[in-house]
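Team,

Forwarding the record for the chain on the shared tracking sheet. I've put the sequence and predicted structure together so nobody has to dig through attachments.
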Amino acid sequence: MEIAVLVLFCCALLACVIVKLSVLYALAFGLVIFVTYAKVRHFAWREIGSMVLSGIKTVRGILTVFLLIGILTAVWRVSGTLPTIIALAMQLVQPRLMLLLAFLLNCLVSVLTGTAFGTAATMGVICMSMANSMGINPLLTGGAILSGVFFGDRCSPVSTSALLVKQLTHTQLFTNIRNMLKTGAVPFVAACVVYGIFGIALGARSGSVDATAVFSREFDLRWFMVIPAILMLALAIGKVDVKIAMGVSIVLAVGLGYFFQGESWMSLGRSIVFGYSARTAEVGRLLNGGGIVSMVNVAAIVCLSSAYAGIFERTELLSKIKSGVGAMESKIGNYAGMLVTSVVTSMVACNQTLAIMLTDQLSAGVGEGHLLDERRRESTALDLEDTAVVVSPLIPWSIAGAVPLSSAGAPEISVVAACFLYLVPLCRLAAGGIRALKTRWSLRTDRKKVMA
């Protein structure tokens, strides 16, 4: 019955993707399915309500961050912060290098801050706006940004996902990071090559605009307009809570918008809620967006998907699947089995944190005793980082990818161009295949020697 319930939910998700409906319909349908399952298991309605609320309560902090991201991405526009940064950067950056720089800059900021969402709402917005000004394909730019923000989310010492994996596997953080750098080196270099090639191939045909001339029609572009962005990054690098850093940047940007850009309190409030809307079409094409409303869809996705967590835990819906996962991993290998599991859990969980936890719980079925072995624990930690952490952003309806792309103003289809996230598991599979071939060749050689 448990498998039938999950298959029905996955079919609903797939149907929404095929007919291009919002995944909220599938998530709402999934909640009905899982609540019905709990009722069939003879849980009282009060208990089921408690399960749902317990799951939603765990994401209160995330919902606050979403609210701040929506406000931040609006006030950076209306205050002139984003236009000033773009105008200055356009004088230094060549269109041919923009895709590569979008990847590298987001890698750098995400490593320093440890947050994919915060990086996308800051450096991601800047890079996307610059690329739009240069006429670069937004799909490719969004892919480069998504790859970059999760490069640091995967291996930054202050990343919440890295800390979560450390806690789940009882390993040392910096040992895990050292292992991740080894398996991530080739994908990183390969991603740089891919974005460099695409940038060279498409940059020559890209038509850029004079950003300074365009933005000067609506904004006062003074150097100190960039202070909200600089202060935001400085506070985040200084390990100040990201919500406090965003709040300080928002207050400063609102002040700049009111005193230097001539915005009224009413227009500022309207932009904060509904997003920035330029007075001219040319500026609007480059800057329109942001606002609390832009975060409503992803916030709803978080609430619905997190409601599942409490139901899964209390009903033990996944317990019978665990043995099947163990059997699969014994046939195709631990990493390949965990990769398959992470794809399914990411589809069901719709967020990275729950996907990591579910993948760890299900894949532990290979044998509980391995957690006592330090080398095996480190291997499990690396497998989680190279599966659930990078797979979650590739699921179209998961907030792991939807929030960064929405914050940056990139199309959802940009997930297909996030090549670093694909290359990490592909390189791991290729390395495992090569090791298996070497082992077989060595065994064959030993047999021949014995026979001789």
